[in-house]
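Morning run. Coffee first, then this:
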Amino acid sequence: MSKITKLIVGATLALGAGLSVLAWAPLESLADPARDSSRAERAAAEGTHFFRMLEEGRSLDRPFPEKVGVMGEFDPNLYELGKALFFDPLLSGDNKTSCAHCHHPNMGFADGRETSMGFGGEGVGPEREGGVALARNTPTLWNAVYSHRQFWDGRAADLAEQAAGPITDPKEMGQDPDELVEELLAIPEYKSFFERVFGEGGVSFENVTRAIAAFEEQLTTQSSRFDLYAKGDRAALSDSERRGLAVFRSLKTRCFECHNLPTFANPEFKVIGVPPREGEEPDLGRGLVAGEAYNHAFKVPTLRNVELTAPYMHNGTLETLEDVIDFYADGGGRGRDFDLPQIDDKIRRFDLSWSERQDLVAFLRALTDESWLPDPPIGLLSGLKPVAYSRSSAPEPKGPSRPASDKAVGAPVIHTVRPGESIQAAVDAAKPGDTIEVHAGVYSETVLFDIDDVTLRGVPDGEERPLLDGLGELSDAIIGSGRGLTIEGFDLANFTANGVMLNLSQELTMRDLRAYNTGLYGLYPVESIGVLVEGCEVTGARDAGIYVGQCKDVVVRNCVATGNVTGIEIENCVDALVEGNRVSDNAGGLLVFLLPNNPSKVSVGCLLRDNVVTENNHVNFADEGAMVGNVPSGTGVLILGADDVEVTSNVISGNKTCGVAVLSLSHLVRKKKAGGIDVDPWPDRVWVHDNELSGNGFNPDQQALDLGLPGSDLLWDVSGEGNSWGEPGVASTPPLLPAPEWGEGRRRFFRRVWRAVGA
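And here it is:
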């Protein structure tokens, strides 16, 4: 007997047994045992921070996060002391190995080896030999100060704690802290230097690590050619690099979803399935530090200066950037006979043409910037010999090819594009305030759109409209970022990843777009503020026809979504209005989701009204491993883990599994994820009322039945708090649902019944 069925039986019996007996039981005794209020508070705080960052940023030019564990205001003396210590082999037990031996300035502050070589080693880089072979690849120090944790497994909280690890590890530098202090005190120049920085008695192991951290804090890279492009110099990237940026941001590769701007890193620990080196046992990674829930998860590294830090991955098994791309294209570990059950759902197989692959590599190389590479030390206070390196390999970044102010000169212009001409060329020529009018005809190109305050408008010729046709080969029709963008009046067809994908943007309008068979998604605004999608039609998407994710202030209205895996999906958003849409013949109709392991940790404030949601009984044809593949066919409206959702005045009929389902996240997130669920999974304060519900739940999908969820007009798993229904005379599971007028005592009783018969 399923939990829901037991609930129906138990509730019927218990309601007749006397309401008042349990009405005033302590609320905490009735709370779901898995409920974690601190997790909800953390998620809310992270959500607030995330959307504040979106509001402060401009398109691709995002503000860098705060540095982690900084030593205070920049002190040139502390920096110079840290630099001296960083290069001094005195810090090792045999006086042969410095920090710089494994974090070499000319090797991207890595060492060029598959895995590091520690104590007793001679030489630097791939030629280093004779020492202890370590298990992991050397991470770069570039921008390490922005990492929320240090080491591949995150075992150190900041750079100072990280510095202590290798110095004292017998396999790495093998130094005893007390002996190091004695050696430093024996060198008058060092003793004087420490006292100048820290005061009398300043020589201590703690101050050694503080000084090294102060030096490493300054190893930042923020002035690559990509950064110039993000600031408005559109000529800073070559055509190939710009195409590579489009591939990087495409839903085909999904690179941007884990390597977030501006650090091109991520605070999460991800399982991607890199196989162990031949003859070695799998490395449990973060699991060795934080427990089994994190087994095989590793920190997402920065991609800045990535061309300098080969070989790649935590064990150095991928030699080139091309190898890394091939690994992900194979589906990560799924394609390497290391298909761990908790591989991140964003790791999916994809196909790239030879030119797309080359373009992506070109873009990754455009992230290189060594303008803050420090000058080599002239000599060491210990008298030992530092590793040799040259600053000549670090040219200053190229300056803007034209003044950024050129973009704003002159009155607004209308750029006209006709068949046989390039839409991209018109976009490149546009400046803020301009309009690009594309006349009816067929255009086969991907349009990269990184400019503010521009309208891209299709101009029809009778019934004919401009068509962007991907020919089944191109990834995306339109992709980019911007502020104050309007895209309207186009047909989009035959792309492999997405119709329109815009991220890191503000005040976006997608209007009167018709997307057919555009791959994973039809329209995909993500990580943006102020999104309007209206009057659009989408069909044939292998994920969501219209997907709005990690956004704030959203309106989706008067759209039609048919024949997709899901029609309209609002995921991890704040303040969304979904109204007047027609959604039919999808596997799932309207979805309001809160999913884990995304930049936004909250889904709050969505109003679904005046929509027609009928006969969403299409087979679920999502890609293998996709989260949306868990949506049962025949789902009308699904509220999953989201809070403060109102569903009213909708027509919801003929959906074979359910009309409106309000569920906890656990039902769809069945695959184990690294670290578990990092959001509050319970739907709270959902209000479903005054809808026209009929003929739902007549033949529930087997996926729903396997989860213990029977068919019904209204379906609730009795999770969350403050949820209410106002749908008299409608079939529901359970047969009694809380109404707004229910007091706390009655709600407590209802939950007690659930605990008694449903646990």
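The longest helix spans residues 37-56. Good start to the day.
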